[in-house]
Amino acid sequence: MTRTAPAQADHTTHPARTPIVGTMTATQTDPRGPVRTTGPAPVLDVVVPVHNEERDLEPCVRRLHAHLREHFPYRFRITVADNASTDGTWAVAEGLAGELPGVRAVKLAQKGRGRALHATWLASDAEVLAYLDVDLSTDLNALSPLVAPLISGHSDVAIGSRLARGARVVRGPKREFISRCYNLILRGTLAVRFSDAQCGFKAIRADVARALLPHVADTGWFFDTELLVLAQRAGSRIHEVPVDWVDDPDSRVDIVSTAVADLRGIARLGRGLATGRLPITELRAQLARGTITPDPPGVPSGLLRQLVRFAAVGVVSTLAYLLLYVLLRGQTGPQAANLVALLVTAVANTAANRRLTFGVRGAGGAARHQFQGLLVFALGLGLTSGALALLHGLTAPSGTTEVVVLVAANLLATVLRFLLLRGWVFRRADEPVLEGAR
After folding, report:
1. CB proximity list for 121: less than 8 A, separation 6 or greater
2. CA distance 400 to 384
3. Residue 8 pLDDT exceeds 70
4. Domain-located, residue 298
5. How many structural domains comprise the chain?
6. Residues 277 and 320 in one domain
7. Is 436 within the bounds of a domain?
8. What class of enzyme is it (predicted)?
9. DSSP summary character for residue 45
10. How far is CA 329 from CA 318, 355, 416, in A?
11. What backbone torsions phi and psi does residue 370 show, to the nearest 5 degrees?
12. Rounded to a whole number, what is the largest CA-CA distance in the chain?
C-alpha cells in the first residue's frame, strides 16, 4: 500500500512524507463516552475511495476540504484511497495531498471499495472514521449531524439514509425500486433495523471499527451491509441521518453484477450467523450498550433457527388442528369444525411461538400478542374457509379430499403467519417502522 502523507497543517500534525502506521494508535476511550478531541491525532478521518475517477476527484476533495475547514471545529484528515486505478487518478490524488493541508493519498494494488475502506480505516489514528462517495451525491451539510453522535459518545455507527423520514432524494424509478427492494430483502432475511444499507455516506467510531472490521469479509459493495449487520447484532447503536441526495447519472456501478454479489453476500452472512461462525456473543460482550442479557437456554436468535423452531411448533399445531377437525366435523359440520379447531390451536400456537421461537418471556404484552395473534388467525381462517367453500362449490368432496385441501391452505397460511409474527406481532419494541419498508 503506497501512501502520500498530508502537508503539515493545523488540521493534522503528521508532517509531510511521514509514513502512516499500519495499525490504529488512537487512545482507547469508553465506547459510551465522548472521544478525545485534543492531542495531535485528528478527530475525524474522511476516506474517499476512488477507482478511475481522475475527472471527479479534484472537485470532490476541494469541496470537502473547504466544507470541513469552515464547519468542522476539530482536527480532520481527508484520505484519498485509490484502489487500482489505471487512469490519472493517482497523480491527481498526489497533487491534492501535496497542496491541501490535511489531505493524504493512499494507493492500493487491488480494486474494491470495501478493501480500500478496510485498509485505510485500520491504518488511521483518528477517533472517528468516515467515508463518502466521490460523486458527492449526498449533501455535505449532513456530515456534521453524521459524526456528532459518534464524537459525543451517543452512538457507535452513523449512516446517511435516503429512505428515512425527512430525506429528500432525486433519482430514477429503477434505482429507487432496486434500493427499496434490497433493503426489504435485508429486513426479511437478516432482520436489519436500519433503513438504508447502501448510501455512500457513513461513519464509525475507531474503537468499534477495530472490533468489527476483522470479521467483515467482503471487499466490494457488500462491505457496508456486512459491517452494519455485524454492528447491529453486536448491540452497537446505529444513528441514521436523513440526507438530501441527488443521483449521479454518470455512475459506473454495474447494477446487475452488484445485485448478484449482494445476494451472495446475504446468503454467506446468513450462514455465518446461523452456524455461529461469527463471534456475535463475544462482540456483544465487547460493544453492546447497557446490560447484556444472554439468550435464554434453547431460544434461537437467528432467522434459520427461528424457522426451525416455528416449523416444529407449526407441525404440532397442524396435527392438533387436524385431530380436532376430524373429531368435530361429524358433530358440527365442516365450517364450524374448522373455526373451532383453528381458534383453539391459534391461541396455543401464538403462546408457543411467543416463548419458544421469538424468546419473549414474562406476562408483559401477552394480551396484546394474543390479540394480534387472533388477527393473524383470522387470515388463516379466511384462507382455509375460502378453500373449503371453493371446494364444495366445485364438487362433492370426500373427507380425504377435504383434509388434503385444508393442509395445502394451512401451509400457505403458515408462511404468512411466520412473516406477520416475526415482522409485526413480536417486532422488537425499539425497532422503528421505516419508510423504506413500505
Report:
1. 45, 47, 129, 204, 206, 209, 213
2. 15
3. no
4. no
5. 2
6. no
7. no
8. transferase
9. E
10. 16, 31, 26
11. -65, -40
12. 91
- pLDDT at res. 310: 86
Cell numbers representing residue 320 in the block: 392438533
Query: Taking Cα atoms as reference points, which of 48, 121, 137 lies closest to residue 85?
Result: 48
Please compute the mean of the pLDDT values over residues 226-248 and round it to a whole number: 95
- Residue 27's pLDDT is 41
> Of the ranges 2-11, 67-76, 392-401, which one carries the lowest mean pLDDT score?
2-11
Residues 58 and 171 in one domain: yes
| Grid coordinates of 232 | 447491529
Q: Does the pLDDT value for residue 96 go beyond 70? A: yes
- Among the listed residues 224, 250, 262, 430, the single catalytic one is 224
Which residues lie below 8 Å from residue 128, measured CB to CB, with a gap of 6+?
35, 43, 44, 45, 147, 150, 151, 203, 204, 205, 206
- 247-266 residue pLDDT tens: 877 666 667 788 888 999 99
Q: Is 224 a catalytic residue?
A: yes
The predicted pLDDT at position 391 comes to 84
* DSSP tag of 35: P
- What three-state secondary structure class fits 245? strand
In this predicted structure, what is the pLDDT of residue 108? 96
Q: Residue 257's domain spans which residues? A: 2-287
What is the reported pLDDT for 252? 62
Torsion of CA 24, 30, 32, 34, to 10 degrees: -70
Report residue 427 CA to chain centroid gap. 16
Determine whether 175 is exposed, middle or buried from the number of CB atoms within 10 Å of its CB (0-12, 13-18, 19+). Answer: middle
Average pLDDT over residues 134-158: 96
pLDDT digits (tens, 9 = 90+) for 299-336: 445 677 788 888 888 888 888 888 888 888 888 888 88
Rounded distance between C-alpha atoms, residue 233 and residue 284, angstroms: 7
Is residue 68 domain-shared with residue 154, that is, in the same domain?
Answer: yes
CB atoms near residue 143 (< 10 Å): 24
H helices of 19-141, where? 57-71, 89-99, 113-122
